[in-house]
Amino acid sequence: MKKRIAIFASGSGSNAQKIMEYFKRHHEGEVVIVLSNNPDAYVLQRADNFEIPSHVFDRQEFYHTDNIVNLLKNLQVDIVVLAGFLWLVPDNLLKAYPNKIINIHPALLPKYGGKGMYGDHVHKAVLANNEEETGITIHFVNENFDEGEFIHQSRCKIDKTDDLEMVKFKIQQLEHTHYPKVVESLLKKMKS
Ligand code: GAR
């Protein structure tokens, strides 16, 4: 039986797109729902293009009800994939999916993580520190931003001439290449 994937995203959703594409061609899992805290997130359009249902929630629903956990359980979701999702995950969701919620971060954690460290903020900080390399981290999610056991890291060199756009491009290449495969390898390890 295919494992069932839920994706949480707050913005553009290019990683969500790659995961949706990947699991059209690879049959270990399928994306069954996309969730967002942002009604204007482009990821919702991407989900629609794949004819994957979506759900938008607000703070009240996410942090003060069990609606999201119930929704995921009713859909028999096996794994929760955060892809550019910018809110902390509440306790009820962490408890419902122990070691089954994963996140991607555009840096080599534990460096350049934590509150406010997302998207371009991360790359700008990396460049400001004249780092010679950067990369991505895929990790299990806990109650803090960008913490939890690492599952995968990949690195890339930063050339002296690299600007923000170039670093962003290199990171996006790494993310798009590795995130779907890491999700697949976790699904393979899950008992059915
Ligand atoms: C990705 O680079 C992801 O690593 C980052 O947000 C971007 C989302 O891009 N996540 C974080 O910074 C989490 N702290 P996308 O919407 O195009 O997938």
How is the topology of this model organized?
Elements: E1 3-8, H1 14-25, E2 29-36, H2 42-49, E3 54-56, H3 59-64, H4 67-74, E4 79-82, H5 91-96, E5 101-105, H6 120-128, E6 133-140, E7 150-157, H7 164-189
Parallel strand pairs: 1-2, 1-4, 2-3, 4-5
Antiparallel strand pairs: 5-6, 6-7
Helix pairs in contact: 1-7
This protein binds glycinamide ribonucleotide (GAR).
Glycinamide ribonucleotide binds at residues 9, 11-16, 83-84, 104-106, 118-119, 122, 146, 175.
Specify the structural class.
Answer: alpha/beta
What is the CATH top level name of the domain at 3-104 and 137-152 and 174-189?
Answer: Alpha Beta
Corresponding CATH superfamily of the domain at 3-104 and 137-152 and 174-189: Formyl transferase, N-terminal domain
- Tally of contiguous helical segments: 7
What is the CATH topology of the domain at 3-104 and 137-152 and 174-189? Rossmann fold
Strand order of the largest sheet: 3-2-1-4-5-6-7
Question: What is the radius of gyration?
Answer: 16 Å
Characterize the quaternary organization of these chains: single chain
How many β-strands, per DSSP?
Answer: 7
What binds here, in terms of ligands, is: glycinamide ribonucleotide
The percentage of residues in β strands lies in: 15-25%
Name the helicity range.
25-40%
Mean pLDDT rating: 97
Q: Quick summary of this structure?
A:
With 192 residues, the protein is α/β, with parallel strands linked by helices.
Tags for this entry?
192 residues, alpha/beta, Rossmann fold, 7-stranded mixed β-sheet, 22% strand, globular, binds glycinamide ribonucleotide
